[in-house]
UniProtKB/TrEMBL annotation:
It holds the Pfam family ubiquitin. One of its GO terms (cellular component) is cytoplasm. InterPro entries: BAG-1, BAG_chaperone_regulator, BAG_dom_sf, BAG_domain, Ubiquitin-like_dom, Ubiquitin-like_domsf. It comes from Umbra pygmaea (Eastern mudminnow). PROSITE patterns: BAG, UBIQUITIN_2. SMART domains: BAG, UBQ. Residues 107-187 form the BAG domain. Residues 31-85 form the Ubiquitin-like domain. This is BAG family molecular chaperone regulator 1.
């Protein structure tokens, strides 16, 4: 565990921060881990941070600290500007929207799992039509929620210098568009399975 954790001193303005960094998933700490810790300690967002070690600017966030020559007890310097209270307020709104996306995504995941169960025959045929109708309704509700989130995000006007907010807004839009495509795919799966059941019922009725 010792090789997985190290403590460095980072000077930011007139303040020196003692930062203990732990690597993710058993790996040794990377620059990204240090950057994330500095967000918590200083309030300076990662995109606005400029880390300097021995006169060199550190840019490759995936690099391990040891590959940059940074060891336990080393001293670094950080330059960067904190977000304004106004930008922080917008950022908080976006983080709340992100939580709504996660909650709706979990509901969609549940529907997808239940549909797989139906396809595998975990329910009597006569009950499947009703169950598919309920799943279809739940997908439509999720789709509507995602559309509302997109409208909410789209209505936010962010100044050019709110880089942190603009990046998060762009990421949310991309994520939601991906989930909307998933909604369409699940709806198509429900429709397809419904057709199969109805055609089988028609064949049984004819015999």
């Amino acid at each position: 565990m010792a090789g997985n954790t190290l403590t460095v001193t980072v000077a930011y303005g007139s303040t020196k921060h003692s930062i203990t960094v732990t690597g993710q998933d058993g790996n040794e700490p990377a620059l990204k881990d240090l950057s994330d810790a500095l967000v918590q300690a200083t309030g300076v967002p990662a995109p606005a941070q400029k880390l300097i070690f021995k006169g060199k600017s550190l840019k490759e966030m995936e690099n391990s600290l040891s590959s940059c020559g940074i060891k336990h007890g080393c001293k670094l310097m950080m330059i960067g500007k904190r977000n304004s209270p106004e930008e922080e307020s917008e950022l908080k709104k976006l983080k709340d929207i992100e939580k709504s996306v996660e909650q709706t995504a979990k509901k969609l995941e549940k529907v997808d799992g239940e549909l797989t169960g139906l396809k595998n025959g975990f329910l009597a045929k006569e009950l499947q039509v009703e169950a598919l109708g309920k799943l279809d309704h739940r997908v439509k509700v999720a789709s509507e929620q995602f559309m509302k989130i997109l409208e909410q995000v789209d209505s936010m006007t962010l100044p050019e210098n709110y880089s942190d907010c603009r990046m998060k807004k762009k990421a949310i839009v991309k994520t939601v568009q991906g989930f909307l495509a998933q909604c369409d795919k699940i709806e198509a799966g429900i429709s397809d399975h419904l057709c199969k059941i109805q055609s089988k019922n028609m064949v049984l009725a004819d015999t």
